[in-house]
Amino acid sequence: MKITFGKALDIFNYPFFKLLSTAHEVHVQNFDEQSVQISDILSVKTGGCSEDCAYCAQSVRNETKIPKQPMLDPETVLEVARRAKERGASRFCMSASGRCMTSEAEFEKICAMVTSVKALGLETCVTLGFLTEPQAAKLKKSGLDYYNHNVDTSPEFYSHIVSTRTIDDRIRTIEMIQEAGINVCSGGIVGMGETNEDRIKMLVLLANLEIPPRCVPINKLVKIPGTRVDDSSPIDDFDFVRMIALARILMPKSYVKIAAGRNTLSESTQALCIFAGTNALFSSEKLLTVDNIKDNADRKLFDKLNLRIENPQL
Asked: Is residue 15 part of a domain?
């Protein structure tokens, strides 16, 4: 049954503790409440992107002057992945800037990275922009577990953030990836000037996909000077927790991940998010071009909350 915006809005506006308790009940019915999945992410190719995403430091249309970094070699990526596994990560994500993979040589490097990281016993994830069906099939054959392709925001607000693609373009790619047998990781960014209604509509869109994303990352905007949203008002922490709770209720079997911006959340806010259904986090010290929370801070928080790090058997 499709979820309506009106129903999702009603849930979002539950009294705060009712919302959290409802989300927590859904969470414990589908996941181990004391377990959290940890991912690391590495930018394997940085900068020079032709897309005009208002939030992104890597877009050539923003005035961030992020230096271009050519594609890393697979051996370097493999060593970073080894260190990530030693820190407790069970999934390793590799991101290449750009609208799509136009270089066959670079795409073959990505496939080699996926195969090598998979051989370490890690889940693999990449984000490469738009794909062709043959590329999706090749990634699946190489051992890819997850493909990240965020919808960013609501359909109504989308044109305020990106003009070089449409949200329908994103949905078609998500469906193609799923048809190739690859799990989808898809969420969005909050704090770019959108309303709570936009945030709810984004979650409704994801929940109403024929196959909801297996992982839903919620990014709190990290303001980067030179981007077109660096003066937007930040999302209220309580509204952020409500977003997490709503994502858990609407997508009960999906991992709900706090991605970028976690280093701006207090331990108490993070604890509320975890109670409300967050069960996936990035632990790498950098998320592409921005800083993330330090690993020892995670360990301290996990100890305080009696959380275990999930290590799925692959």
From this structure: no
